[in-house]
Amino acid sequence: MSPSKKDGDYAIAQERTSESSSHTRLNEASSSEGKTEKTSPPTSVYERKLKLLNEAMQNIGFGKYHRRLFIVSGFGWFVDSSLPLLAALILAPIISEFKIKGPYLILALRLGFFFGACFWGPISDIKGRRWPFTLTLLIASVFTLASGGSLTFPVLATLIALAGFGVGGNIPVDSAVFLEFMPSTHRYLLTVLAIFWSLGQIFVDLLAWSLMPKYSCQLGASACPSAQNMGWRYVLIISGGVSFVFWVGRFFMFHLYESPRYLLGRGQDAQAVDVVQAIAKFNGVPCSLTLEDLKASETMGVNEPSGKSGSDGLKYILQRLQDLFSPRKAAVSTTLLVFIWSTIHLATVLYISFLPYLLVSRGSEFGDASLAVAYRNQLIITCSGLLAPLIAGLMIEMPIVGRRRGLAAFSFLTGAFLLASTTSRTSNVLLAWNCGFSFAHNAMYAVLGNFTAEVFPTRSRGTGNALVSLFSRLAGVVGPLMALYLNIITATPIYIAGGLTLLAGVLVLLVPYESRRMDLQ
C-alpha cells in the first residue's frame, strides 16, 4: 500500500523549542564514565508531550511492524553500499574501453551523493519522512538500471551521478525513519541494520566475479570495443533491477506511517496519536495514549507555537540548524560530528573506491594479475565484514563500551589495518590485512550512523543527518580530485586514509555526549 497523501500529514511546525528545551533535548547525557546523568525534567509543552509519546512507544515494544520496517529499511543500506562498490568494480573495464582517468567516474558519483545529501535531509524535515524514504530508492534504482545501457563515458557519468543523487539522501532519511519508530530498548538495531550494507557489497562482488572476467576485455588490451566489454553493463543492469524490486517492496507491500515523533514536532498531535495507536493495533498490543493525554500537557510548562504550512521552508530549516548549535555543548557535538564524518568519508573514498583497481594493479606487481583473482579477493574482503555490524551492535550496548568508546575503538582498528596493509609483499598478505580492515570499517560505519542519529533531536534529525552527510559527501568529492594527482596504486593514498581514520577516532572521544541511554528528544 502506498503512503497516504493527506494534506494534514505535511503541515510544518513553526518555531524552535524554547531555550529550556534546547538545554534538555538530551536529557539523559552520559558522562565519560558511562553513567547516566539526569537533567531537569521536561518544562516545555513539547517536551512533556514527547515524554508521553516515548513512554507509549516503549510500552508497545518491538513487534511485527518494527520487524517489517527493519527489512524495508535494510533495502536502503543495501543500495547505499552497492552503488559505490559498483563504480569501483567496473573501473578497470571502463578505463580500458573509454580510455579515461578512473577518478572521473568516482567524481561523478560523489557529486551526485553531495547534491543528494543537500536536498533530501532538509526535505525530510519540511515535507515529512515518508516520501523521501520511497523516492530516494526509486531514483537510485532507475538510473542505475539505465546506466547499464551507456555507450559513451559522458552518458555513463551523468546517469551514475543521478543514481548517486538518490543514494545521497538514502541513509540520512532511512536512519531517521527507523530510529523514530524504535523503542529505546531496540535502538541498537540501527547499528545491526548495517548487515544489509555488507549484503549489498557481497551481492555486487558476486555479480562482478561471475560476469566481468568472462565478459570483459583482456588486461592491457590496446583496443576494447563495447561488444567485447559487456560485463560491467550486465552488472549495472542486474543491480539496478534488484534495487527496483526493493523499491516495489517498499512502496506496494509495506505501509509506512509518518514518524509520530516527527508529527509531534510539527504540532500534529492527533496524527501522532493515530500513528502510535495504529502501530499498537498492528502489533496486537494495547495502547493507552490518547489525544487528551497530550492536550493535558498544554496546561503545564512553557507553551510553544504550533505548526503551519510549509511555505516558509527556508526559515524552518534555519531554525532546525540553530537547534543543532544551541546550547554550546550541542554546538561542540555537531561540529565534531561534521569533522568525524568528513575525515572518515575522505579516507573511505581514497581507499575503498579504488580497492578493486588496486587489487588488479598490485596483482601485476606480485605476479598473479587477473580480473578473476581480483574480484575473488574483493568478495573475500567483503564477506569478512558481514558480521561486523551485529557484533558492533552487541558491543555498544555494553555499559563499559557504549557508542562513543565503541566508535573510537573501531576507528583506531580501521586506521591500523590500513597502515599495516602498506607492508604487504604478496597478494595473500594484502588480502589478510584488507579482511581485518573490512571488519573494522563496517563496524565503524555501523556505530557512526547509530551514534549520530541518536545525538540529534527529532525535529532537527533530518537536517542534522543531512548536515553531516553533506560534509561527508563533500569530502567524497575531494577524494577523487586528490586521486587525480596521486598515484592510486602507491602507498601514499593509504597513508593519508589511515591517518585520517586515526584522527577521527581521537575526535570521537571529544564528543560531549554518550547516547547509549539517552531519550530521543
UniProtKB/TrEMBL annotation:
What PROSITE patterns does this protein map onto?
MFS (PS50850)
Bias class Polar residues marks the residues at 19-43
Q: Where in this protein does the record put region Disordered?
A: 1-43
SUPFAM superfamilies, per database record = MFS general substrate transporter
Please give, as recorded in its UniProt entry, the membrane topology of this protein: Multi-pass membrane protein
Q: Where can this protein be found?
A: Membrane
Q: Report TM segments.
A: 69-92, 104-123, 135-153, 159-181, 188-212, 232-253, 336-359, 379-400, 407-424, 430-453, 465-488, 494-513
Keyword annotations for this protein? Membrane, Transmembrane, Transmembrane helix, Transport
A cellular component term, taken from the record's GO annotations: membrane
Q: What main location does UniProt list?
A: membrane
Pfam families in UniProt: Sugar_tr
Q: Any idea where the Major facilitator superfamily (MFS) profile domain is?
A: 66-516
InterPro entries linked: MFS_dom, MFS_sugar_transport-like, MFS_trans_sf
GO MF, one term, reads: transmembrane transporter activity
Which PANTHER family does the UniProt record give?
Answer: SYNAPTIC VESICLE GLYCOPROTEIN 2, TRANSPORTER, PUTATIVE (AFU_ORTHOLOGUE AFUA_7G01740)-RELATED
Name assigned to this protein: MFS general substrate transporter
Q: Which organism is it from?
A: Coprinopsis marcescibilis (Agaric fungus)
